[in-house]
Design a protein that fits this description.
Elements lengths: L4 H17 L3 H10 L3 H21 L2 H32 L2
Helix pairs in contact: 1-2, 1-4, 2-3, 3-4
Length: 94
């Protein structure tokens, strides 16, 4: 059975979101690399690192982690989803 372009794009998006949800620098960069946004991804990850660092240093341990963990997951998730949809649109135009 041949996969249609929509099915491929949907599967690609799901894979990208799984990589983005895993809160590690490496998996998120792999997701950015796959949509050709590696430089933007590195910039986002560095900014998130320093924001998380400031939060963790200014707020005591369990509460700082509660605040910084959603930031380190949701911000890359938002951009990976947004840019993957754009990537799929431009890819399907060719």
């Amino acid at each position: 059975m041949i996969m249609t372009s929509d099915k491929k794009n949907e599967k690609f998006l799901k894979t990208q979101l799984i990589l983005a949800v895993i809160p590690t620098f490496v998996t998120q960069l792999i997701a950015f690399y796959r949509i050709q946004k590696l430089i933007n991804g590195i910039i986002i990850e560095v900014i998130i690192f320093f924001v998380d660092l400031v939060i963790q240093m200014s707020i005591s341990w369990p509460f700082g982690m509660i605040i910084s963990l959603p930031i380190s997951i949701l911000v890359p998730l938002y951009y990976i989803r947004k840019w993957t949809l754009e990537f799929n649109k431009t890819k399907s135009q060719f």
